[in-house]
Structures are given as C-alpha cells and as structure tokens.
C-alpha cells in the first residue's frame, strides 16, 4: 500500500494536514516547529508551500490544485470563493504564489491543496489558515498610543537606568455573543497581554526588536475563546526592552534611545449576529507604575517585590481608582508592520547540577551548561525577605563568580517575598547568559529543587542533527547549538551576557549559512535583512550593527557585506528568490557607494577590522602583535568585494537587471587584475605576506590564475601543516572559508585535523578547557578573560557548513536552490569512520548515515519526495556498488565515472554499499 503524508505551509510555516491516498487517511506529524497558521501577515500575495512524505521511492509531483476560501465552511463545501488555481502542471511545492482574488485588511483565508504525482493523486483533508494584517498606516489612525512619560520613585535616568513596569487595564462590555475576535498589539519595548486574567500566547520578550524609528512590529492573536458576552478585562504589562534602552543619558553619540514604554492596541470583535465592534487604546485606559516589577533592564536584571502584587488587576471588577488615566503619547515614528518572524519562547528547561556554599555564606549554583534565559525560583520565607541572584559564565579560582568580562552589566535579579507559603517566580522582561549563579538571601540552605533554568530563544525549529566517530567534533557541534540558539533574540546578537548583545553584521557573514543547517532560521534572517536595509544611510552606507542600536557607521567591506552573503544563504538554502528581489536595490546602492568612495586604482582601500581575532602568538595576548600573522586589510577588502560582485551578478540575473550584470562583470575583471598585480608574489607563488588568509581568499574566490592554483594551495597547506603545526591561524575572515577550501582542493584530512584538534588554537581546545559554548577568543581562558565572551559564534567560520556539506554530504545544488537537488558527496577519507546526519529541508528530511571499515562502505540515504540527489561514490569500479542489494548497473542507467562514480537518485530511502 502506498502511503503519503502531506504538509501545508503559508509563507514559510508548516502545518500538519491529513492526506488521502488509496482510500486511506493518514495524518502526519509536525516535523518543523515554525509559524503555524500565522495571523496578521503583511503581504497580499503570500507564498504557499507543502511537503510530501512517501513510503515509496521516486515520488514526483506533476500537478497541483489549490483551493482558497474566505471561511472554513465555504472551503469544506468546495466553494473556493477566493482562489481555485485549477489543475496546474508544475513540480513546484515550495513558494507557490497566491494568485486569487485581491486580499483585504484583516481577511481570513482557509486553503488546502490536491497534488498529483507520478504515483497517484493525494488530497489534503484538513485545512491551513492565515490572516492578513493591518496593511495601511491610516487603519491605525483612530488608535492612540498611550503610556506614562515620567519616572516614578525608584526610577533612574542614568548609565544604570531603572524604570518600573507599566501596568495598563480597561474593562469592556460586549453585549452580544462573540463569533470572532482578534487583537492587534504594539507594546514597546516589551509586553504581556492578558484577557480576563489569562495571558494571551506563550511568547516571551515580545515583540522582536527593531529600530523603532524605522519600523514597529505588531502581533496578532485570535482571542475568540478568551472573550465572553458581558464584561471583560483587558490588561497589559509593558517592559523596557530595547525601547527604553539599558543605558540612559550615557554615550548619546553612540547609544540610540527611543523613549518611555508605550502601547497601541486594537481589538476587533465580530458578533454572532454579524455586527462588529472595535476597542482601541485611548485615555479611558488606566495605568500605574506602582506594581511589583520595580525595574527591568536587559543588562542589569529584573527586580520584583511580590508584596506589591495587585491581585486581580487584569480581571473584571478590580478597584483601579488609585490608578492614573493613561496619557496620549508620541508614536515611535517607524512604520507599522505585521511581525513575519517568530517571537521568543521558553524552549527548554535545564536543571542545575550542583549547589555549593561559599565562605561568605552565599551559594554558587552550577547549571552544568552555559545557557541563555533566566532562572525560575521556588522559595518560602517571610514577607520582605530578599533573594538575590547574580549571573555569570565562569568562576574564579576561589570558586566565586568571575564577572570582569560582563563589563558594567550587573546581571542581577532580586525577588522580595510576600510571605505566603511557597512562592514561584521568574522574570518577564530580561535574559541572562550564564552557567553559574550566586544566590543570597535564603534563610536555610537552598537545594537544587529550588531552581530551574529556562532556556529562551526564537521559536524556530532545530532541523539538523550530526553525530560522528569523533567525540571532540560531536561536542563542538553541541557547543555550537547552545551558542547559536542563545544568541537568537529576534535578531542575531553577538553575545548574551555582557553590556553589548548587539547584532554585529560581521559575526554572521558566513555564520548564518552554517546556522541554517541546525536551525530553520529563514524568517529570522529575512527580518534581519530588513533591519539592515532600514539602517542604510541615504547615500548608501551600511553600519556594522543593525538595527543600529549602536551608531557604528564606519564603512568597510567585510562587515556590511553580510547584507549580501546572508541574502545569498537564504536563496541557496531556502530558495529565497523573493528576498533577493526585495533587497537588491539597497544592496546595489551599497555596492555603488563603496565603489564610488573607496575603490582606488581598482583596489578596495577601506578595511576596518582586518582578519579579526587571529590566534595570537602567546596565550596571554588578546590581539596578535606579530606582523607575519596579520593580513593586509586592503587585500581582504579587495578580495571580499570581488566575491560580492560575483554574488551580485547572480542577484542581477534574478532581479532582471541586465545592465548591472555587465558592470559587475567588468569591475570584477579589473579588480582581479589589479589584485594579482599588487599582491601576488610570482617568485614564491603566494600572496602578500603569505598568511593563510592572504592565500585562502583569492583561492576560494577564484582570483588565482588556474595554472597557479595548486602552487598557491601548496603554500597555504605549508603554512597550516608545518608553520602552524596543523592548527588554525586564521581570524574571523579566513575561518569563513578555511575548512571547505582545504577539502575542495583535496586536503580534507588536514581540515579534519583542524576540526578534531584539542590543543591551542582550536575549537577542541575550548572543549578541553570546559567550554559548553563557543568562545569569542581562541585563547579566551588565558588572554585577559575580562575581554572574552564565552558565548560567541563568530569563530565557527565555515565549520558547520563543512560538517554537513563535506563530511555528511548534504549540500544544495547551486543550480537548483533550496535542496531541489541535493549534492551528496562526503569526504570519506578525511579521517572519520562514520557520520550520521540529518537535515529537514524545505522539501522534507534528508539523511546521510555512512560507516566504513577496511572492507566496505555502507551508506544509508534518504531523499525527500519531489527532490533528487546527485550521489558521489568513492570508486570507479561500478561493479563494486550495490543499491538496496541490487547491482548499481541494474538499478540505474544515469551513471557517470570520473574519480568517483556519480549517480542521480530520485526520492526515497536507499542503502548503498561499496566494497
């Protein structure tokens, strides 16, 4: 019996849908935890996608038929009043553009799809849903922003800013039975929304951060089930977030501030009789700052006094006579947009592993893992008792917290008890990066059961797994997962613990690509590209940090160039053609800006950071002082700009900008000529001062004349293998291409040595010295730890890409972006004896599980339905290969031999064996 499973998606969101095949109904499990049935999207022609899962091989979609209706009842009745696509001949199952009737503000759409395959028809039984948001600024015109633009006792407008939370409430009377209700909320900087005492949604730290002078995100919730006929109470708590910034009245030339917390809200209600009502924020709402949240500051922590709790404040009949009337306040200034990427959530819990008393009577709690989030506290005591929790990543030799690397971040939560039995508390509007917590204030010795760590990051799915025969590589992979997840905060930040936590572009130039194998980060990075675009200056400049919470407009290539490389990642990994089309004009503007201002004699003269964080010659140094280790900045910027020109040529094709293609081609040719004339040393066959990065970049980017490539590569290998004794010698820039280039030029064994090393400098050195995330510095345990963040991801470079594409053999064919065709070409001889990896692509699950010994290689492969794979087997002896116990020659006719045997396999599961 042939069985099919069907997933439906809206934009890039997965939905579980029943499927019908040969009179049998099969419901599939939700595999990717993305945006489910999204509310309030801000596009009128959304892209629809679905997945096909089959238990038989070689399944290809031949046609589809989409039905979309304005109500579930109409869809179930077969009335596709919005769109009946008809039977469309196409194998597209990803990013199919809605082409039905023009959609309107706040419109609901219910849809399903029938697909036709070479194995038969599959009908979706259940439905998917999405709704359109509020698309025009004018539709918010009757809704006022409200807040309280003053400080209260205990607040402080200073370097160490303190501001109490704002509590707002309003009672409403719904005189009819409610049929449908949706609330649209913009709560700056962070909000929690309640109806009749119940929190709406399970998101935390919402909404995601933006430059609020450029754009403001609103969230939408279906609250039909929370409302009742008659009286209802609406309540919100407003925290500070990035809006009321962590440092006030301090370095105003650098740190951008936005004002006091504020809110705009619309509640749309449709009654059973068809009539409608709208409840908006106005000055009839009541507000107080005299609640239990005394301060909330992302750098410094949250202070909560449970004695000040207001029981029932967000329910009906609460006495709010002492509350103030909300004030009308100035709007933030940015355009209002539906939030198209996930909010943060508490994604998992961590239980501490030990608690020890210190000589001064406090306790040190060890979570066993450097994590990001907060601590839930359970405590009994008297009213007025205070529990203080200070967070840090590591300990000093005497067992006390090491806090110098936190700079001026206080990272302290304070809870004051109300004295009513067991009290359970956790903060609402902050997060910490920590492994250790110093606890004080307990009247008796606390136990491990008093604490639970809450891990917080964007609500996106983990879609990649990797396991191998090398334990060090496996631990590095785990460390990378913890580091990446912890630094997803509605934008990718550099670190989660000290007084920085900024979205530096240079940390993700290639890192975003590697991250995409672990996390379904497409909506996160699509949003971040908007942040970068919004931060662009009128003349074209792009900052090093975006959103530009810190004003770092210094101009260089390698950091702002991330704008282009991340767009390329989204196109390559997720088929994000629309992203490229959207961002292309701004990317072109920046490329032109850099050319006009900094290209001199076809050399790009502007570099700011060099090959940042090159391993220094001494374990005690933060930065190398040895000129032989440092790569010429203009070499880096020129090579990088050349590579960006090649990406922009590809983008110009997508954007149908023919004139740009010619310009990029001609400019790249000129730069390549000037680059080789200036930096290539013909007598030694190397570039500049022969650093690994100096040779690596032109090799990787195709700037080295073909006849000289092998000689340049030999110099590179000598530097890695002999001069640096088989260790990493590249910084942030070079490490982005190191592992793949070594492997692509035939030295996967040397890349494996770098990946599996345990001595300095290496990723394994971090593991050997107790790291459970990735350090900011290669020698972060010895080189003035005050400089070192122990949870950075920039030094990962292309390591994770290498794990998947070169060790597991899971790579998207550039000619068919989004894994429509997979290139499966592991380096079986690099040094591993087995790899077991999986990746949940936009077409479905890809698996590569291989194991070898002296006698044979056995390779288990899974290729998702409606996709195919180009599979490379390490032999030219075709007769030595079997597929599912059949001779390869009997199984397939699409066989080519070169240094490998190459075969095209359709979707399905296969066991390949090579004797």
UniProtKB/TrEMBL annotation:
Gene Ontology biological process: carbohydrate metabolic process
Top-rank EC class of the record's enzyme: hydrolase
Keywords: Hydrolase, Signal
Catalytic function, reaction form: Hydrolysis of terminal non-reducing alpha-L-rhamnose residues in alpha-L-rhamnosides
EC code: 3.2.1.40
Domain Alpha-L-rhamnosidase six-hairpin glycosidase: residue ranges: 463-807
An MF annotation (GO) of this entry: alpha-L-rhamnosidase activity
Boundaries of every Alpha-L-rhamnosidase concanavalin-like domain copy: 356-457
Residues of the Alpha-L-rhamnosidase C-terminal domain: 809-885
All copies of domain Bacterial alpha-L-rhamnosidase N-terminal, residue ranges: 176-347
Signal sequence range: 1-21
Keyword Cytoplasm (UniProt): no
Listed name of the protein: alpha-L-rhamnosidase
Top-level taxonomy: Bacteria, Pseudomonadati, Bacteroidota, Flavobacteriia, Flavobacteriales
């Amino acid at each position: 019996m042939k069985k099919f499973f069907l997933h439906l998606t809206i934009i890039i969101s997965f939905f579980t849908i029943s499927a019908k095949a040969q009179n049998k109904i099969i419901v599939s499990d939700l595999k990717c935890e993305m945006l489910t049935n999204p509310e309030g999207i801000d596009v009128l022609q959304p892209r629809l996608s679905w997945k096909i899962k089959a238990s038989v091989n070689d399944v290809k979609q031949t046609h589809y038929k989409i039905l979309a209706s304005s109500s579930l009842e109409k869809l179930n009745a077969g009335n596709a009043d919005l769109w009946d696509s008809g039977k469309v001949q196409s194998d597209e199952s990803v990013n199919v553009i809605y082409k039905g009737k023009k959609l309107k503000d706040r419109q609901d759409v219910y849809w399903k799809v029938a697909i036709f395959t070479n194995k038969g028809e599959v009908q979706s039984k259940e439905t998917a849903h999405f709704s359109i948001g509020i698309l025009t600024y004018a539709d918010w015109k009757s809704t006022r922003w409200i807040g309280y633009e003053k400080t209260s006792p205990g607040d402080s407008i200073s370097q160490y800013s303190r501001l109490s939370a704002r509590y707002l409430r309003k009672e409403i009377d719904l005189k009819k039975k409610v049929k449908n209700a949706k609330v649209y909320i913009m709560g700056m900087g962070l909000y929690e929304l309640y109806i009749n005492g119940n929190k709406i949604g399970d998101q935390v730290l919402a909404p995601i951060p933006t430059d609020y002078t450029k754009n403001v995100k609103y969230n939408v919730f279906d609250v039909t089930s929370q409302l009742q006929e008659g009286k209802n109470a609406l309540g919100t708590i407003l925290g500070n977030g990035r809006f009321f910034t962590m440092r006030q009245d301090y370095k105003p030339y650098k740190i951008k501030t936005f004002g006091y917390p504020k809110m705009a809200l619309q509640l749309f209600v449709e009654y059973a009789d068809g009539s409608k009502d709208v409840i908006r924020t106005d000055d009839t709402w009541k507000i107080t700052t005299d609640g239990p949240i005394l301060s909330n500051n992302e750098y410094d922590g949250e202070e909560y006094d449970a004695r000040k709790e207001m029981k029932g404040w967000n329910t009906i009949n609460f006495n709010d006579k002492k509350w103030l009337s909300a004030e009308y306040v100035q709007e933030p200034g940015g355009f209002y947009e539906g939030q198209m990427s996930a909010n943060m959530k508490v994604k998992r819990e961590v239980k501490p592993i030990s608690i020890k008393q210190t000589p001064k009577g406090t306790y040190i709690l060890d979570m066993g893992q450097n994590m990001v989030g907060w601590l839930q506290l359970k405590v009994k005591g008297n009213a007025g008792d205070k529990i203080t929790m200070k967070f840090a990543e590591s300990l000093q030799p005497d067992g006390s917290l090491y806090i110098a690397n936190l700079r001026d971040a206080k990272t302290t939560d304070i809870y004051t008890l109300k004295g009513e039995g067991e009290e359970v508390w956790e903060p609402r509007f902050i997060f910490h990066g920590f492994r250790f917590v110093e606890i004080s204030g307990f009247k008796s010795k606390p136990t491990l059961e008093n604490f639970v760590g809450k891990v917080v990051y964007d609500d996106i799915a983990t879609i990649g797994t990797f396991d191998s025969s090398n334990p060090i590589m496996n631990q590095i992979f785990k460390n990378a997962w913890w580091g990446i997840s912890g630094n997803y905060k509605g934008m990718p930040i550099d670190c989660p613990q000290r007084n920085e936590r900024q979205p530096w572009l240079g940390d993700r130039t290639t890192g975003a690509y590697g991250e995409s194998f672990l996390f379904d980060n497409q909506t996160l990075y699509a949003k971040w590209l908007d942040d970068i675009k919004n931060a662009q200056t009128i003349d074209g400049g792009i900052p090093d940090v975006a959103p530009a919470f810190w004003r770092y407009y210094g101009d260089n290539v390698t950091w702002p160039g991330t704008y282009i490389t991340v767009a390329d990642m989204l196109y390559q990994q997720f088929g994000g053609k629309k992203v490229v089309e959207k961002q292309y004009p701004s990317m072109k503007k920046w490329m032109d800006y850099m050319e006009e201002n900094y290209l001199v004699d076809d050399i790009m003269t502007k570099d700011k950071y060099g090959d940042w964080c090159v391993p220094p010659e001494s374990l005690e140094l933060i930065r190398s002082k040895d000129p032989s280790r440092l790569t010429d900045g203009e070499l880096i910027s020129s090579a990088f700009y050349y590579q960006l020109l090649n990406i922009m040529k590809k983008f110009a094709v997508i954007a149908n900008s023919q004139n740009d293609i010619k310009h990029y081609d001609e400019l790249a040719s000129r730069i390549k000529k000037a680059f080789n004339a200036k930096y290539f040393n013909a007598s030694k066959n190397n570039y500049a001062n022969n650093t690994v990065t100096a040779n690596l970049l032109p090799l990787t980017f195709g700037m080295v004349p073909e006849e000289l490539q092998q000689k340049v590569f030999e110099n590179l290998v000598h530097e890695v293998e002999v001069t640096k004794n088989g260790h990493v010698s590249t910084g942030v820039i070079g490490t982005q291409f190191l592992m793949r280039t070594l492997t692509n030029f035939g030295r996967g064994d040397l890349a494996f040595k770098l990946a599996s090393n345990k001595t300095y400098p290496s990723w394994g050195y971090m593991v050997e010295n107790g790291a459970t995330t990735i350090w900011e510095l290669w020698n972060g345990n010895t080189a003035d730890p005050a400089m070192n963040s122990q949870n950075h991801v920039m030094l990962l470079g292309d390591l994770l890409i290498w794990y998947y594409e070169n060790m597991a053999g899971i790579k998207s064919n550039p000619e068919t972006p989004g894994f429509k065709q997979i290139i499966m070409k592991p380096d079986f001889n690099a040094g591993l004896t087995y790899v077991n990896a999986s990746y949940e692509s936009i077409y479905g699950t890809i698996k590569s599980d291989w194991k070898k010994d002296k006698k044979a290689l056995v390779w288990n492969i899974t290729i998702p339905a409606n996709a195919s794979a180009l599979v490379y087997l390490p032999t030219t002896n075709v007769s030595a290969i079997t597929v599912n116990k059949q001779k390869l020659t009997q199984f397939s006719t699409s066989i080519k031999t070169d240094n490998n045997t190459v075969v095209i396999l359709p979707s399905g599961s296969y066991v390949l064996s090579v004797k």
